[in-house]
Amino acid sequence: MVWLNKLIVMERPIKYVCRSNEEWRRERSYSIGASAVGTIIGENPWQTPLQLAERMRAELEGRFDYTQTLPMMRGHAYEQGVADLFQWQSGHEVIAASKAEYLIRRPDLPFMHASPDRTYWIDNNGKRHGKEAEKNKGILECKTTRRAIDPDNLPLCWIFQLQVQLGISGYRQGCIAWDNLTSFDGFGYRFFEYDEEIFNAAVELCRDFWQRCIKGGENPEPVNAADVVNLYPTHTVGKTIIATETLQEALDHIRSLKAAKKDVEDTLETLTSSVKVAMRDAEALVDKTGKVLATYKATAGRKSIDSKKLAIDYPETYQACIKETAGTRTLIIK
């Protein structure tokens, strides 16, 4: 990439402004973004290191998936609202031009990039100080969430993201602002100074991930069942492993939980059956005030294809309509 070649010979962090979200997403595929560090350290509940590696390798090959989930679209759409709340509550002016889609890379770290949500004036009068204005900027990360946030114990992935943004951009102050969408008073913010120790740790993690997993093609270790199915969709016939003490304890716990679950399900079935017997042909069960406590209605019938009859009477059509799906792996506790 020509721009990357130019980047390597320049001394200062370079800001690359993108003309569209698609261009921004394409440009970011050439390096690891600050938001991905949380995934690499295992602190992202929505993505595993394996999923990140597979997505980045695909994008480097030109295979882009521009599909955005509703949470992703919400997060992007609500950025401005969180930025506005931060400006009103903190008194720090958010720089309007920082809303643009852009990336920042350092010449010595071409495998990483920063893409701040917004920037703000640390001192609102600093914008009048000419060339000193850059030193007066801070990075604002805007978060929306549905979980309670403790300002003194922010998610580690948020902190790593902000510190990487600061380390790459050269700014020395930043702020994480968040809005809990399920709480009336869920907005908050917290300022951070640049922490070189955290940034250097993130750099080494990203360097290793880039060299081994992205350029080298090595798969990260699986961390959940979805990763295992992805890497090992089928079993190796005859292969066994020796159960560790930890695995033995996990199996014992699973057995006890299944036994408790069966007891609950049996009790639930007995109680449900007793209510149905009492209701007979009644549509609803009410209390003395007429409040509906339960309903017992028949659903509408449905039409379905008799596959056995189709196979006998129209074998060619049946064969043409057969769809083969991949097998699944089932864990059976003995």
What does this structure look like?
- The protein has 334 residues and is an alpha+beta fold.
- It folds into 2 domains: 2-231, Lambda Exonuclease, Chain A, CATH 3.90.320; 241-290.
- 42% of the residues lie in helices and 16% in strands.
- It has 12 helices and 10 strands.
- It has helices at residues 2-9, 21-28, 37-40, 49-60, 70-77, 79-90, 156-169, 196-215, 225-231, 245-279, 307-313, 315-320, and strands spanning 14-17, 32-33, 102-106, 109-114, 118-121, 137-145, 173-180, 187-193, 284-286, 292-295.
- The strands form 3 sheets. A 4-stranded mixed β-sheet has the order 1-3-4-2, sandwiched between helices. Strands 5-6-7-8 form a 4-stranded mixed β-sheet, sandwiched between helices. A two-stranded antiparallel sheet has the order 9-10.
- Strand 9 (284-286) and strand 10 (292-295) form a beta hairpin.
- Helix 4 (49-60) packs across helix 8 and helix 7 crosses helix 8.
- The longest helix is centred in the last third of the chain and has 35 residues, at 245-279.
- The radius of gyration is 28 Å and the shape is extended.
- The relative contact order is 0.11.
